[in-house]
Amino acid sequence: MLEVIEKLLILQDRDRKIRRVQTELAHIEPERQSLKAKLAGTQTALENARLRVKQIESERKRLELDVESKKSQIEKYANQQLQTRKNEEYRALAHEIETCKADINKIEDQEIVLMEQGEQAQKNMVAATREADAAKKLVEEQISKLGEREQNLSKELGELESNRGELASAVDETTRGRYERLLKSKGDSAIVGVNHGVCGGCHMKLPAQVLITSQGQQEIVTCTNCGRILYYTRDMILAATD
Asked: How many domains does the chain have?
């Protein structure tokens, strides 16, 4: 194998590792934000559950005041009945009293419904509290682990990039420039092997002359289809598969 190819393969291996670490690092922040959104969702559910409990309690108190108001009206009408001597007025007041009593019955029915709703709302709040507490603990643990992972990856990236320049400078400028362009356009497979007569990058069949030149290992050979730099080792099967 040409010395320059060996150097390029070492450089490519380093670039692959760098790209892998960069990709993992790039996924950490979205993952962290996703965890925070999940936590915020459980907190919102808890706040809604608490708000529902307060709303029901407020409505229950309002109904209690309405009952007290109706009872006061009944007492007022009863007193007026005692003071009146007119049958028509007495019957009108009696009607008002019955109306108030009917209203009280309706309000008490509403109170029963609210009581049932309140019990369910309390259960929902307890469940939401439990879920929010569990989510908070879990998310905090996961975010902490993400932070540790981020630090480790950043350290690894720094170590990988520390002497990447040395590896690159070991390749002549022209070949290095070609490699860098392929790295941008082809990802981390700029240098690929030849096996069964095809390019290891685009998997297209290679001309016989390219295969022969690759086997000779005397010059840099590129794929006639995708432009990737090719290399051949003795453990590869050069002949095309029928």
From this structure: 2
* 55 falls within a domain: yes
**Same domain as 119, residue 177:** no
Q: Which residues does 224 contact at the CB level (< 8 Å), separation at least 6?
A: 206, 207, 210
Ramachandran quadrant class, 231 (left: phi over 0; alpha: psi -120 to 50; beta: rest): beta
| 23-51 per-position pLDDT tens digit | 999 999 999 999 999 999 999 999 999 99
Is 167 exposed, middle or buried, given 0-12, 13-18 or 19+ CB atoms closer than 10 A? middle
Looking at residue 204, the DSSP 8-state letter turns out to be P
- Residue 234's pLDDT band, with cuts at 50, 70 and 90, is confident
**pTM for this predicted structure:** 0.71
With tokens 């685009």, the residue in question is: 202
CATH number of the domain within which 108 lies: 1.10.287
198 shares its domain with 101: no
Is 237 within a domain?
Answer: no
Q: Do 114 and 184 fall into the same domain?
A: no
Q: How confident is the model at residue 233 (pLDDT cuts 50, 70, 90)?
A: confident
